[in-house]
Amino acid sequence: MKYFRFILLFTASALFSLPSFAMNVLTSVKPIQLICYELMAGISKPDVLLAANTSPHDYALRPSDVKRIRQADLIIWFGEGLEPFLTKSLSRHPNVLTISQLPDVHFRHFEPGHHDDGHHHHGNIDPHFWLGIDVVRDVATEITKRLAVADPEHAEQYQSNLSDFIRKLDKTDTQIRNELSSVHAQPYYVFHDAYAYFEKRYHLNNIGHFTVNPDRKPGAKTLIKIRKVLSQQPGICIFAEPQFLPAVINSVTRGTDAKKGTLDPLATDIEVSAGGYFRFINHITKQFTNCLNN
Q: Where does the UniProt annotation place the signal sequence (predicted)?
């Protein structure tokens, strides 16, 4: 009898000590994961499908990826324009938030002729919204609404997290604006056209990119044009990206006075933890200032 009572007490204690429902949120790419981490603080931690050093432009799903998709309670992705490999699998999932289809978010739309001879995969909407603090604010608000619907037990906590996140966004926005105020006029090239949200918000002087679609090598005409500018204007900064080999940039800049920097739009080396999104956007800022100030 004493043994039976002990088992009952142990079972009851274990049941009461179990945490409440922890929603399994799967994000497609790391920048979206970083945003969701802030919104889910104190409740659960979002997972991510693609490794940090993996480009979504040419990814192919593995069987283990398909299993993770099936097990997720909520999947948050940008949309077919960024992650076309997910389109078929997510069409059968019951709970998906497609960021590119949010009606109340003012995304940047590419200009006509942007599609790089028909090879560009982004569609008409620029998917790199996470580099624009004003757009991130709107997207975070919509993500919070969906989290609260899927997990109403924690609705108040999600809303509180959103309020904290927006306050930090506003503070960070002011800091970045001040840090970049001295480099507005400095010209530079980027590897691919991924930074317009950031550039337009802080009035930076991007004079071109090597490629629209990082899956495709830059055309000969583009490289000749860039090299001509570099030979005529010393000290222009050229930004590479860690996901792609810098050989083409090294070739174009060889023998010139061009400066070289690195921009990482996928937050490869940013730890997924509290404040991760802000470390990411501040790191982008520092990458700009380090090259443009020298």
A: 1-22
